[in-house]
Amino acid sequence: MALCYDIGYSEMRIPNLLEHETMPEVIQQSSSWLPLLARECHPDARIFLCSLFAPICLDRLIYPCRSLCEAVKRSCAPVMACYGYPWPEILNCNKFPADHELCIAAVSTDENSSSRRTVPRASCKDCELEEASTAREILDNLCANDFAVKIRILRKNVTTTISDFDLDPSRVEVLKHGPLLRTEIPGRLQQWLDIDATCVHNIMRGTHAGVFVVSGEVQSDKVVVNKAYAWQKKNRNLHQAVRRWKHHRCPEQAGRKV
């Protein structure tokens, strides 16, 4: 089944840990979780779900650890709430064994470890690459947002369910910094890459690296990207807009007296 394809073992128990008694039932019920996995809300979400939908065929049942359930719920429940779905009672974490018992533990980085990168938090923001329709439209967008930057994004890890993204510090061209200092931009954008992992995943479209022009707002202690354009040769309007930006005057600037 799609949810647990290539999970690492080939035989599973029926009935499973959610009391599904036939494979058609398992496939039907598990497919409803595929959109959540696509949101990449937690790197262990697939392991957690497959331990329940497709438990490995052993002499005894092995449940996911309570801490694994809690970690996945902490990151994924907010994403489900974005679409009006509560965390289901069948996944009540109190049902699962404590970590000192035999159970399936978390694999990803410990969120409480100060020496390692934390798991990206859930993002409700749906974002896709914008079509660079006209140079004027792009310029208007840059004017309307707090900041605009041309950046190169690198995918650090292409083997796990969730991907870590890094900003290439040598490829940051600040077009507009707004209320931020220019020196603050790279750090704030790296924070965005970590927090809005799903948004970045959508923008990257499966590529290992890419150059983009992104613009957005500064909200409290973080930046929120509203628009993203792929920097490609065919996007002539985008190239034209960026060239013109240096000498472009936004409407509010043009209205001021010199």
From TrEMBL:
Give each disulfide bond as a residue pair.
Answer: C4-C50, C69-C93
Highest taxon in the source lineage:
Eukaryota
* One term under GO cellular component: extracellular space
Keyword annotations for this protein? Developmental protein, Differentiation, Disulfide bond, Secreted, Signal, Wnt signaling pathway
Any GO MF annotation of the entry: Wnt-protein binding
Show where the NTR domain sits: 124-250
- Where in the cell is the protein located? Secreted
Q: Where is the FZ domain?
A: 1-106
The answer to keyword Disulfide bond applying to this record is yes
Any one biological process term the GO annotation gives = non-canonical Wnt signaling pathway
Q: Which family does it belong to?
A: Belongs to the secreted frizzled-related protein (sFRP) family.
Q: What protein name is recorded for this chain?
A: Secreted frizzled-related protein 5
Species of origin: Patagioenas fasciata monilis
